[in-house]
Amino acid sequence: MKIPRSTLEQWQVLQAIVECGGYAQAAEALHRSQSSVSYMVAKLQEQLGVELLEIDGRRARLTQNGTALLAKARELLGGAFQLEQLATSLAEGWEPQVSIAVDSLFPVELLVQVLRDFEPWAQHTRVNLEETVLSGSEDALVEQRVDIAIASRIPSGFLGDVLMDIEFVAVAHPCHALHELGRELEVEDLGRNLHIVVRDSGTLNPRDHGWLSSNQRWTVTSPHTRLEMICNGLGFGWLPEHKIRTQLEQGLLKPLPLRVGQRRKLSLSLIVANPEVAGPATCRLANLIRKVVKDGIEHRPLCG
Question: Residue 276 phi/psi, 5° resolution?
Answer without folding.
Answer: -70, -30
